[in-house]
């Protein structure tokens, strides 16, 4: 017959076993917590590094945007300044060409003041000045419209009156009162002309 154990002793043994199990469980839990804590600390460090990198990239992109905006603003200002200068000084070269014409006119005018002036020389000087002016105008696309003996063209001619003429076909320019001009093919001023019409038949 086995020896009967004291109930209190059995209770103590059970408590010791349970306490040992609880201790083992606690140690395992503590070890797991240490591992989790290490992982958490490692992850926090990685996140902090990534955050710093993202901030650095954002700062870099912001600086690039500021520089691009400044460059665009400077480009707009330079374009506006160039456009203003283009409007201001568009006639600069044309004016330079006209200065020689004015000089020639002044010389001719001064020479004409002399009572003993040679008319033939004045005429030659005037013809030379007119040629200089025509060359300067042609250089910049200004062309003269002198349609004498040409068919009347309402796009470039303005009829001042009609003349019955039997020696030329009707609608022919028979006289130019004032010459016209075009600029690069666009009409600036029409030529003022007299135009022929069919002669009245005799009685």
List the helices and strands and how they pair.
Layout: H1 7-88, H2 92-112, H3 119-139, E1 142-145, E2 157-165, E3 173-178, E4 180-183, E5 186-189, E6 191-198
Parallel strand pairs: 2-6
Antiparallel strand pairs: 1-4, 3-6, 4-5
Helix pairs in contact: 2-3
Describe the fold and architecture.
The protein folds into three domains: 20-89; 91-140; 141-203, Nucleotide Exchange Factor Grpe, Chain A, domain 2. 61% of the residues lie in helices and 17% in strands. The chain is of the alpha+beta class and 203 residues long. The protein is built from three helices and six strands; from the N terminus they run αααββββββ. Helix 2 (92-112) runs antiparallel to helix 3. A hairpin with a 2-residue loop joins strand 4 (180-183) and strand 5 (186-189). The longest helix is centred in the first third of the chain and has 82 residues, at 7-88. The protein has helices at 7-88, 92-112, 119-139; strands at 142-145, 157-165, 173-178, 180-183, 186-189, 191-198.
Produce a short descriptive summary.
The protein has 203 residues and is α+β, with helices and mostly antiparallel strands.
Primary descriptors:
single chain, 203 residues, alpha+beta, Nucleotide Exchange Factor Grpe, Chain A, domain 2, 3 domains, three-stranded antiparallel sheet, three-stranded mixed sheet, 6 strands, 61% helix
Series of secondary-structure elements, N-terminal to C-terminal: HHHEEEEEE
Average pLDDT works out at 84
Helix content: 55-70%
Structural class: alpha+beta
Beta content comes to 15-25%
Number of E-state strands: 6
What profile does the largest beta sheet have?
A: 3 strands, antiparallel
**Main sheet strand line-up:** 1-4-5
Low-confidence stretches: none
Continuous helix count: 3
**Overall morphology:** elongated
- Give the CA-CA distance, first to last residue: 178 Å
Radius of gyration: 53 Å
Summed up, the domain count is 3
